[in-house]
Design goal:
By secondary structure, the protein is α/β, with parallel strands linked by helices. It contains nine helices and twelve strands. The two termini are about 35 Å apart. The structure holds adenosine-5'-triphosphate and magnesium ion. Adenosine-5'-triphosphate binds next to strand 1, strand 2 and helix 1.
Length: about 325
């Protein structure tokens, strides 16, 4: 039996801007099992990073978590004070590789100094012990420990990103959130970074939430996949469900826009239009203005999540009873 690590229930995170309330994450629910990789995919601006920031409790102002629960190892981490969360959860239990993280390395500190700091602050190690631990971590992600003396500008983008992965894993957390960990990298380096993630996931049985707009990246590593559109999860299932039997018209559109190397050459399909403004999203199903299957209930009522086969959920009126 798989053990539940985290249950996100009805999460709502809104940004209170001068333009109005941006409902970036609007009633998102999913379950993550221990040791499992969940891919979170969807177009730019659909709320993927905001979901991640909510879990690590670093939603930037003017954003606020306004509803829902995040039950992690049996405890609602949204009920904790920020001080308690910082002391007990962040980095120790849940760590995050931020979008564009490789540029977040401090340019005036050596890699070793930056890595060692994690162990000195959180584990009370001496500098010498901390550097030894950092050396082990670096080799784990395939970088020569001699590089501890290097400065960020002396490393390639892929190496910097692997340093960030190593730092996220430093305290052996059961959950790592990786937000677009390979987006700025070329495809060869992208593959290297993905292989490092895959290897670490196998060795340490860590759960990973892999966030990307690139569904082909998720296919390589994910056990489960959640498809997000305009602040909501529209389809959730195992990787087999999503890749072999996608149901939501949006998921099908996303998959059809992945170029195929093998097989017959098809015209690239794409989804017309752009995602809605989350200050005033469309009524009913938020995808209906772009959907070629839309019919009478779609612009009036929000479709409920329906389990179309065991463990495979879809929020679309094509599958729901009214
Ligand atoms: N600090 C902020 N202030 C106001 N609105 C914000 C802020 N951060 C994000 N948003 C809005 O919240 C929505 C979701 O943004 P988010 O960054 O979570 O999307 P994303 O799915 O991660 O996109 P991408 O693929 O581009 O990284 C967007 O409409 C965005 O404009
Ligand atoms: Mg993002």
């Amino acid at each position: 039996m798989s053990e539940v690590l985290m249950r996100v229930e009805g999460l709502k995170t809104y940004f209170y801007t001068a333009r109005g309330i941006v409902k970036a994450v609007d009633n998102v629910s999913f379950t993550l099992n221990r040791g499992e990789v969940l891919g979170l995919a969807g177009e730019s601006g659909c709320g993927k990073s905001t979901t991640a920031y909510s879990i690590i409790r670093l939603v930037p102002p003017p954003g606020r978590i306004v509803g829902g629960r995040i039950v992690f190892e049996g405890q609602d981490i949204l009920k904790m004070s920020s001080e308690e969360y910082r002391r007990k959860i962040r980095w120790k239990k849940i760590s995050m590789i931020f979008q564009g993280a490789m540029n977040a390395l401090n340019p005036v500190l050596s890699i070793g100094d930056q890595m060692a700091e994690v162990f000195m602050i959180h584990k009370g190690m001496s500098k010498k012990e901390a550097l030894e631990e950092s050396a082990k971590l670096l080799s784990m992600v395939g970088i020569d420990p001699k590089r501890l003396r290097s400065y960020p500008h002396e490393l390639s983008g892929g190496m910097k990103q692997r340093v960030m992965i190593a730092m996220a894993l430093a305290l052996n957390p059961p959950l790592v959130i990786a937000d677009e960990p390979t987006t700025a990298l070329d495809v060869v380096v992208q593959a290297q970074v993905m292989n490092v993630l895959k290897k670490l996931q196998k060795e340490y049985k860590v759960s990973i939430i892999l966030i990307t707009h690139d569904l082909s990246l998720i296919a390589e590593i994910a056990d489960k996949v959640a498809i997000m559109y305009a602040g909501k999860i529209v389809e959730f299932g195992t990787a087999e469900h999503i890749y072999l039997n996608p149901q939501h018209p949006y998921t099908r559109g996303l998959l059809a826009s992945i170029p195929r190397i093998r097989g017959e050459i098809k015209k690239l399909e794409w989804i017309p239009g752009i995602p809605p403004d989350l200050v005033a999203p469309p009524r009913g199903c938020r995808f209906h203005p772009r959907c070629k299957y839309k019919f009478e209930p779609c612009d009036k009522e929000e479709p409920p999540m329906v389990e179309v086969e065991p463990g495979h959920y879809v929020a679309c009126w094509l599958y729901a009873k009214r």
